[in-house]
Amino acid sequence: MTGATPLMVVDGAGVVVRWSRRAREIWLRSDSDAVGRAALAMVAPDTGGSGNGNSDARDSDTDDSGGGTESRSGPLVIHDVDGNPVDLRVQVVPLSDGAVAWGVFEADNGAAPRGTRTAVFDILRANTHEAFFVLDSALRVLSLNAAACALCGIEADKALDRPVADVCRPSRPEEFEGVLRGVLADGTSVTDHVVRLDPLAGSSPERFAKVSAFPLNSARGAVVSMTEVTESMRTKRRLDALGSVRERVGRSLDVVATCQELVDALVPGFADIAVVEVVDAVVRGEDPPLSPLGRDVPLRRAAFRYGGTAPMAQAHPVGDVRAVPSPTPYSQVLNDLKPRAVALDGGTPWLDADPERARAIRASRARLLLTAPLALRGSVLGLLSLYRERPHDAFDENDLAVAHELATHTALSLENARRYTREHAIAAALQRHLLPPEPPSRTAIEFAQLHIPADAGAGTWYDAFALPGARTALAIGEVSGSGIDAATAMGQLRTVIHSLAALDLEPDELLARLNDAVVRLAHERAALPPGDPLHQQPLRASCVYAVHDPLHGVCVMAAAGHPAPVVAHPGGVVHVPEIPTGPLLGNRAGPPFATASVPMRDGSVLALRSTSFPATGSPDGDRSNPLREALTRLDRPLRDVRDDILYRLRDTSGHHDVLLLLARTRAFPPDQVATWALDSVPTAAAAARHHARERLGLWRVSEETAFATELIVSELVTNAVRYGAPPIRLRLIKDSTLTCEVSDAGGAAPRLRHARTVDEGGRGLFICSQMSHNWGIRYSAQGKTIWTEQTLP
User: Fold this and answer.
1) Most buried residue among 63, 302, 691, 729 by CB atoms closer than 10 A?
2) Half-sphere exposure of 576 (CA within 13 A, CB side)
3) Closest Cα partner for 370 from 354, 348, 394?
């Protein structure tokens, strides 16, 4: 015989009293299923054709005298658990320890092959290095190999006939058994299912194993193989954490957003809790302090994420600013810039230095801490703290190395975000100082502005300033790009507009000159060294320029690649005038600019908007548009209209400013303006002085100002009569300043001369310039107008 252990032991009544491991493998029955049951009913022997299994079995057993010691043997064809015949040679030998018990052994001659299943089991047990289990339908262990005993830390005899979950000790036994029951129920194999196993000893780390399960015999049993993959899983977890951080951290140029990207990349894969605290000065874009960090340097809790199952607890809310308590692992890390892994338990002494953090650690059931500095070139940007809840999932030296690498990557991203924040702060400050304050209201116009700066700082601007003749210039524009360069270009263009407006150019002519200036600035950019980032950025700008003339009740405007203004009239009429939109500024070969004249009634509102401002909707009235809806109600202060528009806006975040300039027009008081037509005769100057003296007396202008005005009127009218062409017109306007205008139909341009002592003429414009604080010439299709402005007390 092959050995001294029988397949089974039966008593005189044919009932099994002992069941071997080989029998468990052949018939997939555990000891509890076999012992106490009739042997013939389970093994179902057959003598090859008679179909009478019982008689054949008795023929091959001993006689019924009992107690005999003669060994009998014979061929038996028995059925395995599936009912398939298995040809075995068995020997029935009475046992020496009792006359009523019989042992059934495998025959040791090679005349008949052994069962296929048992042969496969023998090969697997002898040659495989994986843990190998044979289970019955109740998931009890029928057989296992030495590798399985080593994996589970158990002796083979103690594992048999026990539930496999008790033997392997998975961390989630219900889930593990559910997978195996699915294999038995569906008859479908499962491969490479990863399970977490409890530690073998109390202080050893937890383990991972890949499980493969295959059904046997119509799902009445299963073969399970397990391979420990603890180190490969830990390595994969580290690589996944590094890959996730490299992929997700640094996509934003915002310090706080970068911190949130870090905790999202690490929880729940690498840690159960992640906290990022940043030096508060870094959030504002300031330079980070050097290590060691002073005890009074405040850190801002910038990001927090919890992936565990216990109630979430935070020591301090996100956004809280406070110094790190000392001495603690956190303060030590910020001093020597080396990561640390420490265990957290009730006896941890340094927790007394930070009671709030200690309370949060206990409430979240954190058992392990890894803290690493976010530092770069000796400067401290912040602190990363990672927690794990499972006490056996300890941070090892490899985890510390990975934490240092991902903290370095995050520190680089934070430094980029800090520099960007600093540049944005400088650009925003530059833009804020280059933009004008809210324009003061004048006699014929009042203003209200709305400015929502972009996150990155932009080159959007607006302007409103007085022109001679009670007119007002309004402009809004936007320079391509963002940051300091865009803000600087914006300041340049705003200065150019002021200089061109002083020449009293028409809006289309002003935009044409402004386009020439942008072309020159773009050429200067292109001439920069190739390594300069600005060299690759084309300079483009858009602009709308409008001039409101209250004396004629019109607003003349021109556009260069910019949305047309919105006009609202009393009574709820809101429309966008059709303005020929020229090309963007900076285009060398663009078509010429054109103007449009829009009537403006008393109480009308002109809305100039940036390109990023929401569109006004369809002409028939889109009530969902905030600008159109707010402008339908003009029977309230202009500031209330502005605030109403702001409250109706939804998403205003982006890379461009949201800018709106509202201007409500008023009728100019008729008693504050006087116009006279003059004859082109030598006595015209005297008549003009008389008209001026009389009107200035009604306006109660001081004698000194009136004397200067008479002199100015006399010189300008004399020049018009001598060098101009009729008709000649004199107009006086009393606003915040006193304006004197003399118009004629001549096209000749007068110039300021510096007459010599013996010259009899040539001093007219010089006298006018000395008696006024500003003067100029304005041309139109009807001729020219020479004007002067004098300050009024």
Assistant:
1) 302
2) 20
3) 394
